[in-house]
Design a protein that fits this description.
Blueprint: E1 2-3, E2 14-15, E3 22-23, E4 28-37, E5 40-50, E6 55-60, H1 66-73, E7 81-88, E8 92-96, H2 107-111, H3 120-130, H4 146-158, E9 164-168, H5 176-193, E10 196-200, H6 204-210, E11 213-218, E12 221-227, H7 239-251, H8 260-266
Parallel strand pairs: 6-10, 6-11, 8-9, 9-10
Antiparallel strand pairs: 1-7, 2-3, 4-5, 4-7, 11-12
Helix pairs in contact: 3-4, 4-5, 6-7
């Protein structure tokens, strides 16, 4: 596990009796995490534990602190003022809304960038095949569609076999049809590799469809921690899917209009 510097400390939480102790593993653990910009506290003594292999989605209104939390976990904000404890697994990969492929490198070279070893090329080719880009290893990034670029970005993230995948709205720039396909791909890859995932999204349906746990961040703290107990693949027509969706929308302050049948029932004249 790696600790965060710059006003933060990192710890292992231990349990046990007498002289015997055992470290309880976590992909992410924060305790009383504070992140401050000037006079404004964006994260306010936030406590969070993400277990190994757990798929967690993070929802919240704009300005609630979602990206601030993700950047802290990714160790990208060492100059930001803050305090508290933050411990993160060493093997972390990131996926952004923009694929961030380097235009002067071919697709395979983008996927294995920074890796060393005799089997790197084979690992990269296997990762590309997993995301449906077999045979595109020699292509340039500009020759790929937007969805294909995001597939390559996923291959780059997963070829490193991360213990934690941080995804900051990775499908936000895609069209609706491509986005649906990418949802299925991400869930399939998650089932195969089983990293812990922390997905930041504004899309409630996306959160319920993909994650097994959904958090709502409000005013710098977690206001809702909801376990999603649905089999995969998930159907948005499932009444339980709609129940989870309605619970999260209510937590986000979104009022749902009554369905036509509900309107009729609400206006039935009394005998």
């Amino acid at each position: 596990m790696a600790t965060h510097t710059g006003g933060l400390t990192g710890t292992h939480e231990e349990t046990g009796t007498g002289t015997a102790t055992a470290v309880r593993p976590a992909a992410v653990r924060t305790r009383k995490l504070v992140r401050r910009f000037g006079d404004r506290n964006v994260l306010k003594e936030l406590d969070l534990t993400v277990a190994p292999g757990e798929f967690t989605a993070l929802l919240g209104r704009s300005g609630s602190g979602k990206s601030t939390l993700l950047r802290a976990v990714a160790r990208l904000d060492h100059t930001v003022e803050g305090s508290g404890e933050l411990t993160v697994t060493d093997r972390v990969s990131l996926s952004f809304q923009d694929s961030r492929l380097l235009p002067w490198l071919r697709v395979l070279d983008n996927v294995v960038l920074g890796l060393r070893g005799p089997e790197v090329r084979e690992r990269g080719l296997t990762a590309l095949a997993e995301v449906g880009l077999e045979g595109r290893d020699r292509s340039w990034p500009h020759e790929l569609s937007g969805g294909e670029q995001q597939r390559a970005a996923l291959a780059r993230a997963l070829v490193r076999e991360p213990g934690l995948l941080l995804a900051d709205e990775p499908f936000g720039a895609l069209d609706a049809l491509t986005r649906i396909k990418m949802h299925g791909l991400l869930r399939e890859l998650y089932e195969r590799h089983r990293p812990a995932v922390l997905l930041v999204t504004h899309d409630v349906d996306e959160a319920v469809e993909l994650a097994d746990r959904v958090l709502v961040l409000e005013d710098g703290r977690i206001s809702v921690d909801l376990a999603v107990d649905l089999p995969t693949p998930r159907s948005r027509r499932d009444p339980r899917f709609q129940e989870y969706r309605d619970t999260l929308l209510t937590a986000l302050g979104v009022t749902q209009p009554l369905a036509r049948s509900e309107k009729k029932e609400a206006h039935v004249p009394q005998a």
